[in-house]
Design goal:
369 residues, mainly alpha, two-stranded antiparallel sheet, 4 strands, globular, disordered N terminus, disordered C terminus
Amino acid sequence: MKIKHILMSCILSFTLIGCDTNGDNAKMIAESVKNNLTQLEQSYQLTKEHAALPEKKGMYENLMLIAIDKTLAENKDLTAMTDMANQFKKDTTTDGVVFRSINETYNEIVSDPMYNKIKSGNVTGDDLGKVLNYQQEVSNALQTVTPKGFDDKFIDYVNTLAAISTSVSPVVVSELSKEASAVSSFIGNPQYGEWKTNDNGDMVWDFFMAYMFMNAIGDIAEAKYKYGNNYNYGRYNDYYNKKKEENKYGYSGYYGGGSSYNSKYRYDNWNNTRNWSYHNDKYMKDYAKTSDIQKQVITHNNATKKYSTNLFSNKTLEKQTTQVAQTNKAYSSNLFGNQNSKNNKISNGYKNTANTKSTKSSVSSKGGK
């Protein structure tokens, strides 16, 4: 009986020690997270100011604005190109989708129940698991809810313009595959569209109404690759204008729904040919919210079941990924900052629009200056 009592006392002691340890660990981690939250709040305000003020533009934002002018000069009479230019410019402001996504990330952090618990110092040992998860979310947000994180999202914008225009060079990667859709960098990003299953059971990317022009641009770029400039692109313009009018009061799809679509927007074809993109190959791997990662995994698992015999190794993507890894070994200190010597003429920091003249040299002709 005495031995049993001793054993029970030992078990109780170890349990209490464990509880104390959990409580101490939780409070210690919470204190660190509290400091990170203060940094995040300050960074959010800086990012909001960056997006709100026209004179504040990052390196890739400036490159995109110059690339837009070059692209429009080559495609003067195409409505889709004009709509693209207007939307891309809007996306550099607080009304655009880029800031909205950053705002959403920030609001999720500060609306989480752990935010008030940590701020008020009311964390207990029972909260240890939640504190650890919250710590990771806050850490990721600190990398993206910044003026630099805002600017990095425009890498995909610049590369989309480079896939369209012969006078715009890509950034981060040295070249883009013409086998991929010109808009492949935006496919898979839930800010611009979603995967849908059509009447044939195929998983096809569908751009939202605000980005319907992407469909026309993808089609036009593909035709240019096949036929060159000596081709009548008026029919693409007419079709786009027609679909734009039809969808004015309710989006019903660009290709008319059913089984009609651009084959490069089907999951297996996109997966097998796509180019490297900031969203799919940097953001999702290093900074994405847990909920977004889970959605991506579900989509890929469904696609794997559907296209098990059609999913192949993407050699272009593998080559581009290797290039990015080799030239950017320290993402956190200067993400993509040393990628392109021509782009370094802008600087590794942020320039306002007064520096446009020095920035113009950063978007060069693919055939040379």
